[in-house]
Amino acid sequence: MNHAANLSDRRGRALRDLRVSVTDRCNFRCEYCMPRDVFGRDHRFLPKNRLLSFEEIETVVRAFVRLGVRKVRLTGGEPLLRHNLEQLVARLAGIDALDDLALTTNASLLTESRAHALRRAGIRRVNISLDALDEQIYRNINRINSPLADILRGIGHTLGAGFDSVKINMVVQKGVNVSEIIPMAGHFRGSGAILRFIEFMDTGNHNHWSLDQVFTAREIIDLIDPVYPLQPLDANYPGEVAKRWRYADGGGEIGVISSISQPFCGSCARARLSAVGEVYTCLFASSGFNLRAPLKSGAGEAELAERISAIWRGRRDQYSVDRRSLRLRSGGGKMSQKVEMSYIGG
Ligand code: SAM
Ligand code: SF4
Ligand code: SF4
Known about the structure:
- It is built from eleven helices and twelve strands.
- With 346 residues, it is of the alpha/beta class.
- It has a twelve-stranded mixed sheet.
- α1 runs parallel beside α2 (85-93), α1 crosses α9 and α2 (85-93) packs parallel to α3 (112-121).
- The mean pLDDT is 94.
């Protein structure tokens, strides 16, 4: 039975896009994602034998593709920590109906040969996270002891490896790295990489988010425009998350992702698969749907597709639209626990 033709959730949204977390581990401890006081020595990461195998991930992805998914992004945690990731990439690249295979990484492990190997295996687009060019600000955010020069080298290798696109993701936080917006714009103008500014989000339960720390997409554009004049661009496709702008002098384009100030839940066509095999239908969900058990008891693509179809049909998520009322309802007290972004994949 073909479910893809008319699969939509309870708000009429299709399923097009899947993020696959291949590990919950990371070699960074970004304050906004995996703060050290929570993800320290005592934190228990998933044991290796709990992770889905590459074969199992492929089976689940094939089930999603049956339902209309055309874009898959590998993420984590830090996906390059997963051994032999290229083998998974090659498996997924062999799925006919999949148009787009992408990777999000902190680039710390992106050597030149790794970048080329990922490209050869079938990664088409790479997003790299980088929040500052000032070494001290960079370290204050990422809380690691590895030099910024390594990341910039990783970006260089990626730009030279022939990917269809390379994007740099910068999470902007008031009082932390607003001063880095113009230097980052200046650095990546004309580089071939598209810089995207992301509003700081209240993901997970530990990043001490408050609205006061959000520097909005509008404020970002208003800051850049007088220095490097900008013109708005049309979206590449309906429902594109980033709003696109081009430099008026031809220096390339940037994007702004306004998850807080202008939520885009109305067109959210994205599901997430955790490294152990749970499906999450929202980045801010408290729990996922277990595909692991059926997978382990031998369910194939068709049966998994039936299950995913039922999950998607029941979906109502729109956390970012409801954020204000949910937070008000909690009276400034504890919100219900959300899954961690490093666990389900950003
Ligand atoms: N480790 C990889 C990396 O950093 O690129 C992939 C996983 S990371 C969770 C994916 C993306 O989520 C990164 O671009 C990161 O900056 C973003 N992110 C994490 N926490 C965030 C937050 N609180 N607000 C906005 N973006 C966040
Ligand atoms: Fe690691 Fe990425 Fe989270 Fe930073 S944002 S801690 S690099 S998973
Ligand atoms: Fe999609 Fe949830 Fe983000 Fe809204 S808050 S855009 S439903 S992931």
